[in-house]
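Q: What does the assembly look like in three dimensions?
Context provided by user:
Components: two
Sequences:
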Amino acid sequence: MTLQRPRRGNGGFVLACLLPALILFAVFMVLPTINVFRMSFYAWSGFSPDPRFVGLDNFTRLLDDDNVIRAFQNTVTLLVVVTIVTMSAGLFLAAIMTRQRLRGRNLLRFVLYIPNVLSVVVIAAIFSAVYDQENGLLNGVLRVIGPDTWQQVWLGDQKIVLYSVAIAMVWQSLGYYMVLYMSSMASIPEELYEATALDGASATRQFFDLTLPLIWQNLRTTLTFFIMSAVNLSFVLVRAMTGGGPDGSSEVLLSYMYKQAYTNSSYGYGMAIGVVIFAFSFLVSLLVSRATRREPLQF
Amino acid sequence: MLLKRGFTYTLVGAIALLIAVPVGWVLVASLKTKGEFYGSPWALPEGLHWRNYTDAFLDARMGQYFLTSVLVTALGLVLVLLVSVPAAYVVARYEFRGRGFVEALLMAGLFVNVNYIVVPIFLMLVDWDRALIDAFPDGFFIDNPAMLSLVYAATSIPFTIYLLTAYFRSIPKEYEEAASMDGAGRLRVMTTVMLPMARPAVTTVILFNFLAYWNDFIIALTLLPGDGKTVQVGLLNLMTAQKAAADYGRLYAGMVIVIVPVLILYAVIQRRLIEGMAAGGVKG
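A: Here is the predicted structure of the complete assembly.
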């Protein structure tokens, strides 16, 4: 396709069209992003007038901060658990819904996608209601079907709380990824399945030998984005649902950063944590993308 | 085969129930009286206790917050379209120096999540307020809903331009050529020829940005620390208040107030939303 030739007098029009967007983008995204990195080299208690340059002090302090280590472990645990569960369940559901041509598919898709349009505050409130110790849905069910020992303080027990958050995360994102995989699986030609079925391939074999390789590129892309967005989702969900508690046992890196910045007014230190998370999620996405590289398969 | 299908239906149905039941339960529970919350969580309310809603709307000021949210979201959408449509059009159709750079920069912006930069944005606005303290002793930028709209608009520019540019590129050039042959100026070509043709993409962009603005609470919490809150922050406050006073009714009514507009919109446009998602493939 040919583009509009640079023509006399176009410059003004182009500039007028571009400038408002670029200014807003520069002021509210580029500048703050640079500031995250810049501030991480300063000690600054917020409203005091002069930040003091401390070099890498904030970063060395990070390494000795037990809370950071724990927040880091929590973030990694959530990433691993939620990614594996959401991805495999999403793939599996998408495969059976596309292959078996279930009746009521559209209704199911409608319902499964609902959590994706709800706000995180609403999801946090829903799960607080589900997990409520006395009047919650979950303990209400367990009281009927099992012994008392099954009931738990889902958001108050240090050993359980992180997994309670993980379940909420899966609940939120499962439908989105299922719908995404359904649409990429729907574009695989039916003849391929018929041919392999003639060769006697079972549905399971077809899934691993045919479906999975054919949507591999799509899977890779979503995986990369999933990791980035899971880091963020874990933060907003933890912020709204547990506030990092009890006693920091569900704190994730971003929520700890937020806490350092606002509650503790250590802006410089908070930004150093931000830099670490940013580098970390970027690195993980890159590694995952490298590790999953395959020769693209065409149909 | 029949057995397998039965199994599949059961499994998929069970998962659908796991999603539908908590949401439906909130809708039902929002009509319970205080006493009914201490009974079985599965019992239906005896009557329709609308009192929870007037409590939430008036006493908990969810009505006022709702209005703020509507205005902030609407203004944000207007702003983002006003700046992004022309920019996306020019990037898609004109050749100019630095085009590659502009595109790469905006692309990089897709990877910067607001959660990382909300603190520097807040500090920047505090700084601006301090600089203008003589003109506006009460501050202008912090606690200003219009400013919140502007920040929403600015932070969704990369995604919006990305989606619109791709769509503009897919429209054949002949339409514009015909129009300018008829003597239409550049601005008229953009607004009366290209914009109507890009309607599907514009609708998709509005949908996704609507959800992002309406559902956000981190930026709203940070930039509107005073009394003028958005519904999401109001709901967050109700959650905190409920933990202290065990006033479930208001909380559930508040949740319904926040959920219902989104659910209605979703039911109306779900096909477009899902197709748009498959086309865009990026989640902010």
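Follow-up: Chain A has one domain: 57-291.
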